[in-house]
Write a structure and sequence with these properties.
Residues 1-21 form the signal peptide. The protein is α+β, with helices and mostly antiparallel strands. The chain has a domain at 55-126: OB fold (Dihydrolipoamide Acetyltransferase, E2P) (Beta Barrel). 21% of the residues lie in helices and 31% in strands. It has helices at residues 3-20, 51-55, 96-99, and strands spanning 58-66, 71-76, 87-93, 107-115, 118-126. Strands 1-2-3-5-4 form a 5-stranded mixed β-barrel. The protein starts with a helix and ends with a strand. The relative contact order is 0.17.
Length: 127
């Protein structure tokens, strides 16, 4: 093939690849609770929290509140008591009172704990 044919073929494949890429906004949303997911490097086998740990709250921003499902999505700093890095994730609420007054966009301090294998917000305070 000549240089021109190679160039045309390369451009054609590049344009076809870009055109076939899906718009991220049209992709289905995933539940990020991650039960059973292997997370090497995270201290999942850490010792039980101490009394001092239980007083520690983590800062975050509420992204979504689903009172019907008892869930809250929080973009948070590292969860030191759980050995988890900063990220955005969905948590279950320990009970309905935890979600009372919470709204998307609000800065919060919260306590998350692992309860029966699920990550649960046990305390939530508006900042």
């Amino acid at each position: 093939m000549t240089l021109l044919k190679h160039s045309i073929a390369l451009i054609t494949f590049a344009v076809a690849g870009a055109a076939s890429a899906a718009d991220p906004a049209t992709q289905p949303r995933m539940d990020m609770s991650m039960p059973g997911m292997a997370m090497p490097g995270m201290k999942m086998d850490a010792a039980k929290p101490t009394e001092a740990d239980s007083a520690t709250l983590t800062r975050g921003i509420v992204k979504k509140v689903d009172t019907d499902q008892g869930k809250i999505t929080i973009q948070h700093e590292a969860l030191e008591n759980l050995g988890m890095p900063a990220m955005t994730m969905v948590f279950r609420a320990a009970d309905a009172t935890v979600l009372q007054g919470a709204k998307a966009g609000e800065a919060v301090a919260f306590r998350a704990e692992k309860v029966n294998g699920a990550l649960v917000v046990t305390r939530l305070v508006a900042q």
